[in-house]
Structure prediction request, 311 residues.
Amino acid sequence: MSRRTGRSNFRCRSCGLVGWSERAELVLPDTVSLDEISVEDRAAWVALKRNHAAEAAQAEVLDELAARLDGGPQDRLLYDIGTGDAQFLAVARERGFRVRGNDLMEANVALAKRSYDVEVDLGDLSTLDVPEQDAVTMWCVLAHVAEPEALLQSSFDVLKPGGTLFLQTPRRSKVDTAALAVTAAARGRMSRWVDRRIAPHHWHLHTAESMTAALRAVGFVDVEVIPRARYSLNSGAYLASMGVPARAAGAVGRATDRFIDRGWAPRIVLEAYARKPGKLAPAAAAPASEQRPVDGAAGDVTKPGGLAAAG
Prediction:
């Protein structure tokens, strides 16, 4: 147990998954209104992202999805769970996908429209009337939800037979394993790294084994799980969130970002591709209404059995 936060973590001995033990005690909202988090608040958060790194990762993923979808991306339906400001959907749209997504934050829905002219559903996937999709994506969403198995099942259900799921989620890296051991040896002291990596906004860290098992458990086949060194947030902002003073966080963060850009950083996320059994039908030019949002956003807040946006 961390002496700083009072939180304790669990570890699965068979698959290596670690997570926050008390997360079930939280009472979570269905959606987050503009009165709680404004568009300006979300825009300020988005500004802390490492855009060049995100764009490179998105290009790789879209290339891979195009290769896995017979006939390529043209007129294929893609749904991004917990889409945030919808920057990824805007890029996918340029590639030929017919895009749609959701989020739990009204601010993200407004920001997506303002920044990229992308319409986004407000609400949890399980409450929305979403047509079957050729591809479903989620970027650092699974670690934010109260019931990840339910979200994986919803993702499976919304895919067409033969459709492809892509997800990115925090990985239990060697650094995390070492930090957990240090915290345990210090009897809850020296927990700053663990407190940031496993917290109310990141409830669990998967291993390749645990992620593979979770995907297969809901019916996915052809599961491929790949450790990656993906860092979406500027290191200075990340260090500041751990309580490092602003001046030191800025200086150390800039140096850390240079190491990351050179590929010298730990692989702290997993990227997974999986397929729903069946043969994917050829793409058809669907009417515009098919990908029109319904009244119904994921953000840094979660919903039991639902989804949340990347943190």
The two ends are 23 Å apart (CA to CA).
